[in-house]
Amino acid sequence: MISRRSVLQCITAGSLVGLVGHTGSTAQPESTADGTAQNATGKLRVSPTSVHYDEPFTLMVSGVAPGTVVTITARTFDREGRQWASFATFTASSKGVVDIETHAPDAGTYETVSPMGLIWSMRPTDGESSIYAPPEGGSDLTLTASADGRQIGQQTVTRWFGPKKLHTEASPDGLLGTLFRPSGDGPYPGVMVLHGSGGQPAVGSALMLAAHGYAAFAPQYFGPPDAVPDQLAEVPLEYLQRGYDWLTSRPAVRDGSVGLLGTSKGAELALLAGATFDWVGAVAAYAPSGIVWAGLTYGGEMTSSWTLDGDPVPFVPTAFPPSVIADYVASWPLGGSVSLRPTYEVGLEQASTERISEATIPVENIDGPVTLVSGGDDRLWPSATFGRMVVRRLRNHEHPYPVRHVTTETAGHAISFPYQPTTGLTAISSPPPGTTMALGGSPEGLARANKESWPVVLSTLEGGLS
Predict the structure, then answer these.
(1) DSSP line for 101-125
(2) d(CA 459, CA 454)
(3) pLDDT reported for residue 104
(4) Which of 36, 152, 272, 305 is the most exposed, having the fewest neighbouring CB atoms within 10 Å of its CB?
(5) Which of 264, 304, 331, 453 is catalytic?
(6) d(CA 76, CA 143)
(7) Are the C-beta atoms of 125 and 85 separated by less than 8 Å?
(8) What torsion do the CA atoms of 270, 272, 277, 282 make, to the nearest 10 degrees?
């Protein structure tokens, strides 16, 4: 039996000869401008051959003998130049056709019918686990179809990460971040994109929004350098007010309301800022919390994540139950994953009703539509439960704007925009060395969540900022 890693290594070498049961010569296909490549053994058609990252493409092989085993491979490179690859083998239909939109693979890096399975199931060909970071601008995806040791065809799809004509602008002193927008005079509606506890600006989501005609500002609100707090603790909400003032002062940015898109702690911040400032016109919150939690400090001190007018915003402390400590102890020599979800669940159980009430974000004050996106298998914190709490509060207060909660049971914490590799997003490196922090979900579940939630997020921003 041929291992998945062996196939990926052969993809790296640019050949599947010997893996599909035939070692004959390889016929060279003829390519046409319409995305079709063919030779005497069949035809490969891919359409379109230039797409934005969140746009799908179709792939079909035709003209082969019924029952032919067809192997399709995909190759691309990430921002660091590392090669990623995937593959799937199919049995051609009675009409001599393989269509990835309707056919399940017999074997490969994914198992069920999934039109973009060749994308989300990609892995680094060096065998190491990694999170895929797309190159900015256009990057090439090479798709190859072969059968009986012969290449049927090869096509390249150019995938654009951000608008084809991109304008960027760095923020002024005292405000860290970058504005991404399409080139041109605009004016474009503004969105602030808020990162999570990783502390790095959410450039990817900002570029994706820019491709949809938004002026997306990705600020950094904690971490080095000195312009912002060095840890996620007592971050002033007024920092976002400065971000709004600068964003809407740009000549190409539409004045008035802006949207907030946040992930994890950034989603908590988005909901809190939306309930605090009247300039927020829409909120999209990935892996959200409608409760303010303790900040993340180097020394373990319990303090709020945020301040307003110089005062800490009321918060609920996290807890470290024995089960989490035991998981850390057990995982360190074995390299296992640790779920931090119990630290929040037990924190809620231990907090008084009064403390929870004080720390609950008054989301009913948000002057616009609200969308929550969560995974039922979130292992970092119970975002699906938190999302339901937000929805319940909004409905109890008869929120006059659309409220939507997109939940995917097989997804975890790392839900984002669609059609990207998700194989490295179920866990991330964590101290101590050798352990990982569980994010939850499966690669396929995350891919489904990305696809289902992204149009809802775009609709929320469009509805609140139109």
Answers:
(1) TTPPPSEES--S--TTHHHHT-EET
(2) 9
(3) 97
(4) 36
(5) 264
(6) 9
(7) yes
(8) 40
Token pair listed for 69: 């085993």
List helix spans (H) across 65-156.
Answer: 117-120
372: tokens are 């929550």
CA–CA gap between residue 334 and residue 306 (Å, rounded): 36
Among candidate residues 217, 129, 134, the one with its CA nearest the CA of residue 170: 217
**Strands annotated E in 329-449:** 337-338, 370-375, 403-408, 427-430, 435-438
Classify 425 as helix, strand or coil.
Answer: coil
End-to-end, the C-alpha distance of the chain in Å comes to: 56
Burial 224-242 (b: 16+ CB within 10 A, else e): eeeebbebbbbbbbebbee
In the sheet where 235-236 sits, what is the strand order?
A: 235-236, 306-308, 311-312
pLDDT tens, 298-346?
Answer: 888 899 999 999 999 999 999 988 888 777 777 766 667 889 999 999 9
Give the active site residue among 327, 374, 378, 405: 378
Residues 11-34 have pLDDT tens digits of: 444 433 333 333 233 444 555 555
Catalytic: which of 304, 399, 413, 453?
A: 413
pTM: 0.91
Question: Distances from the Cα of 193 to the Cαs of 119, 179, 365, 418, in angstroms?
Answer: 25, 10, 20, 17
52 carries an active-site annotation: no
Phi and psi at 354, nearest 5°, equal -65, -40
State the DSSP H helix or E strand holding residue 392, giving kind and residue range, or none if neither: helix 383-396
All structural domains of the chain: 4-161 (2.60.40.2240), 166-465 (3.40.50.1820)
Which helix (H) or strand (E) segment holds residue 39: the answer is: strand 36-39
Contact predicate 35/46, CB 8 Å:
yes
Residue 5 dihedral angles phi and psi, to the nearest 5°: -65, -35
Q: Is 114 a catalytic residue?
A: no
Q: Cα–Cα distance between 454 and 460 in angstroms, integer? A: 10
Sign of CA pseudo-dihedral 238, 243, 249, 253: negative
pLDDT at 213: 98
**Is 378 considered catalytic here?**
yes
Q: For 195-250, what is each residue's pLDDT tens digit? A: 999 999 999 999 999 999 999 999 999 998 777 899 999 999 999 999 999 999 99
Helices (H), 67-221: 117-120, 203-211
Do residues 312 and 303 make contact, with C-beta atoms less than 8 angstroms apart? Answer: yes
